[in-house]
Amino acid sequence: MGNCVGKRGNRDHRESIWSSTTLKEPYFNSSYSLLLNYKNDEEVLSTMKAIQATIESGHVDAECFVDNFATECLITLLDNENYEIQKAALNTLKVIILQECKCHIRDTPLSPLLIDCGYFHKLTKILNEQSNDFEIIQSGIESLNGIVIESAKTLQIIIDLNLIELSAKLLKEEITPLEIKKVILEFMLTFIRFGNATQITYFCENEIAGPLTEAACNGDVNAELALKCLNLLLKKNVKRL
Question: What highest taxon heads this organism's lineage (predicted)?
Fold first, then answer.
């Protein structure tokens, strides 16, 4: 679960797809080195901010930062003692994951690399330790939603790490902002959509349907989304609600 650089095996032989050939080499060669051998906290924070801006602007595909081992470096930074570095690494990974998983352009999925590097375990630890930081919660849950879209195989990992229970707990708490509750409900809806019968039944066996029912009945802006989750549970033949 520590430094995962070099663990990807054959996945580093893939052909890359680039948004701009003129920007390919600088980002491919420099970002990995800067993340691995940064001189101080300010430098690595600036590097992560630049990676996010580069992807979001469309100058370079997120795949660049997967193929040049930057993703492994970012996952390793989730263990950093500096909270701001942890937070920036998680936000940067979210940007990479959301673009990669939605585009469906890879020959091999991103999730095996995330599993190999212990991303899910590190994310679980951060979400539990920083459950009052809603920016952290939003980045983590949005990342999970993207990964589920790419690979349903990660559903069992999410269950085993109790990330569904954590999401339900946050959904139930009054202090959780409505915007964050919306992110949680979108994640749950995706999970239900892709889950098999055993995984869906897990919602009922662990009283996850309770917070969903409360969210559907409280009349706020997320009620319709919560109702969609419950309706989909019913359609997938869940017996106990």
Answer: Eukaryota
For residue 23, give both structure tokens: 């920007």
89-144 pLDDT per residue, tens: 999 999 999 988 766 544 557 888 899 999 999 999 999 999 889 999 999 999 99
Closest residue by Cα to residue 70 from 96, 91, 43 = 96
CA 201, CA 90: separation in Å to the nearest integer?
A: 30
Question: Do residues 116 and 126 lie in contact, with contact meaning Cβ atoms separated by under 8 Å?
Answer: no
* Residue 119 and residue 14 in contact, taking contact as beta carbons nearer than 8 Å: no
Domain boundaries, the chain: 1-161, 164-241
Q: The whole model's pTM is what? A: 0.84
Place of tokens 């263990």: 79
Note the pLDDT tens digit of each residue in 163-189: 999 999 999 999 999 999 999 999 999
Token pair listed for 154 = 């990660």
Residues 6+ apart with CB under 8 A from 50: 31
Are the CB atoms for 5 and 73 separated by under 8 Å?
A: yes
**What is the CATH T-level fold of the domain 1-161, as seen in this structure?**
Leucine-rich Repeat Variant (1.25.10)
Angle between helices 134-150 and 119-129 (to 10 degrees): 150
